[in-house]
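User: Predict the structure for this protein chain, please.
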Amino acid sequence: MGKPNRRVLPTIIGVSVLTTLAANVAVLVAHDDGPKSAQAGEKRARYVAASGSTDLSPTAVAPQGKRLSPHVLVAAPSALPADFVRKVRGAKGVQGVEVVDAVQGMVAGKRVGLMGVNPSTFRNYTPKPTAKSDALWRNVASGDVAISFTMGSDGGVKLGSQVPVGGKQHQSQLRVGAYATMGVSDVDAVISHTTAQALGMPTGNAMLISVPKSEPKAFIKKLRKVLPKQAKAVAVNPEIDFPKAGNVPASNGQVMTAGQVQTVIKAAYTRLGWPYVWGGESEAEGGYDCSGLMQYAFAKAGIRLPRVAADQARAGWVIPYGKAEPGDMLIWANDPTAPGYISHIALYLGKGKMLAAPRTGTVVQVQNVYTRNMRGAVRVSPKMAAKVAGAISG
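Assistant: Here is the predicted structure, written as structure tokens:
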């Protein structure tokens, strides 16, 4: 299925990027979300657990080590040169480097960001709930695929099921061994390096870099001077700016006009009744997911939004829900495997109502607003939205 304006190679995994990498795959793409109902609550934590045990010995995967936050992603069509990797490892401010295999592949019939990793070391670069699960990483080491929480819970891909994984033409059946978000927004599926090689993925063509004391943008600027040909670098999951109350412009072209607000709302209403389709963003896919719905509606008002909820949350100023107005986007962090990660978004209609695409098995609908895990409302700025979307699409 076509995914216009997904993410371009530089942002590949973290903030965007889409490029052709190998025969049947292209470097990472982003996906989406849509919460379950608020009452899913405490039960969600269990999804971090793997779906079953393996025959691997307890020592097959190293225990969790010191956790590192990935700040920069570098990706290329083929293996990153060893001397380049060494230079980055030794660069000032670099606390850690994790080399991985990365492509945009097919998992359970969806085009997603797919990574081949060393379970023993890569786990240290993931969110705490994901990193600490020994069973999860042992399952990945044994040949399972771990998929993001949203792809599983909202996309309807069942834990323990057998799903096709690979390129467009050649795929193998793998078991879904766990629901676990990896904390890199373009990545919805992870397999072991061994499994990746069996599927024909490029080897060592990407790496995550932890630079906790450096500004990612400044580090990337320096890094670009030594990047291998065709390689790109992007920040991983830029943080959302939460301005102080009263700092949101009221007009002067900074926010939507009344006419644009009405156009967005009317456009969203035309999608009522369409099925929730994880990764869907047009009629061509037969439905919409939550951020695909937002992208569709705002485009009708001439506003270009990035593709996924985590990026759409940066398309304006985040304000308290109590100050929300019709036309704002509401955002939630519903993913227990990646605390704080924005995983769902909806359009605020006013008077406690919102228009949303919830999850697989539902349709685009008007709902009562719920505040569990809500992180606020986004007052969309056409200029900010275009800037974010432009950076992501390259």
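Residues 43 and 335 are 12 Å apart (CA to CA).
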